[in-house]
Every structure is written in C-alpha cells, then in structure tokens.
Amino acid sequence: MNADTSPGDFESRLKPIWLRAQAGDAAAYRLCLDMLSARLRGFFKRRLAGLPDAVEDLVQETLLALHLRRGTYDPSLPVTAWVLAIARHKLVDLWRRRGRRDALHDPIDDVAEQLLAVAPEDGGARRDLDVLLRELPPAQHQAIALTKIEGLSVAEAAARTGASESAIKVQVHRGLKRLAALARRDDAT
Q1: pLDDT of residue 124
Q2: How far from 65 is each of 58, 73, 82, 107, 162, CA to CA, in Å?
C-alpha cells in the first residue's frame, strides 16, 4: 500500500473486493489478503520497532485469524475496522506471551553481590549456605555454585555445563529467589 493512500481510500477500494471474496470469489480473496498483508505489515512495524522479527509472524497470525473468522464479518461495518480489531488482539497476545517469557529473563544483577558473597574464612556461613544449596534442584544449585561462588561468568558456566546462557541465567535467578525464601523460612523458625 502506498503511504499517500488515505484510510478512507483504502477502505473504499477494499470493501467491494472483500464482499466479492465473502461471496466465494477466490481471486478477490487473494487480492484482499495481499492488500491487507501490506497494511498489517506497516501497522505492526510501527508498533514493534524493537521486535522486527515478530512483524511477519503477526501478519501471518492475523491473516490466519481473518481467514478463520471471516464468517463473523458484518457487512454494515468497515472491513478495516474489523481487521484492525483482530490485529490489535494479536498484538496484545504477543505482548502477553513476551511478558511471560521475558519475566523468565530478569537480570540477575538485581541482587547485590555483597549479599551473595561468602567470606572464605566464615566456615559457619559456608556450612549454612551448603545446607540451603542442597535443598535446591540440581540445575539451580550448580548454576549458583558456578556463577556466584566460583565466580565464573554466565558464558563460562554455560560452557562447563552444556546448558545455554539463558538457561544458566534462569536457573540462577530462580535459585536465588528460592534461597531467599528458604533463608526467610529458617529465620522464622
């Protein structure tokens, strides 16, 4: 779609073609999908400047949703409004999915290093830490031991264990949260 085409012009060109497509005209349907994909690509690119790889996926997801829901279109409404509503839902779905996935990758640097450091001469603290670490799942225990106790970088810990860097970060983050909960439990007793 040309940038100089106004939304009204687009709607006035799209609607008659869409109505033919709804009546079973396969060529009109392909033309509508082509017109809409160009418009959707621009819509998503403006909203996902930081996630260019997600744009084409969202275009395809939206076109699939349009295809599956084409029977719900009300001919008294603008086609573009109906398409835009579906596109917005797909965008919100993406943000929700990313929010959940990105929550797994919180920076582990949020925890002050001095709170995690074990003084070598403090044998009692080391024994307490060992007791708490044994209560963690093995992957979390190993990730914390390598990065926070031995001082390896995330990349070095990943290389040593064969896990991905993301997996090491997640295990450290979850393990630290679990350790904090265990320490609070022990303080309460």
Answers
A1: 58
A2: 10, 12, 11, 35, 39
Query: Are the CB atoms for 163 and 146 separated by under 8 Å?
Result: no
Here the tokens at position 35 are 């017109």
pTM (whole model) above 0.70? no
* Separation CA 180–CA 185 (nearest Å): 9
Please identify, among 49, 83, 103, the residue that sits at the C-terminal boundary of a domain: 103
2 within a domain of the structure (yes/no): no
- State how many domains the chain has: 2
**Length, in residues, of the chain:** 189
Whether 133 and 182 share a structural domain: yes
Write the single-letter amino acid at 52.
P
Closest CA to 150 of 168, 174, 170, 177: 168
- Please state, rounded to an integer, the average pLDDT across all residues of the chain: 81
Indicate whether 30 pLDDT > 90. Answer: yes
% of residues, the chain, pLDDT over 90: 33
Q: What is the number of other CB atoms lying within 10 angstroms of the CB of residue 10? A: 19
For residue 116, pLDDT over 50 is answered with no
Q: What DSSP designation does 147 have? A: I
- Domain interval for residue 33: 7-103
Q: pLDDT at position 104, please?
A: 47
DSSP codes of every residue in 125-149: HHHHHHHHHHTS-HHHHHHHIIIII
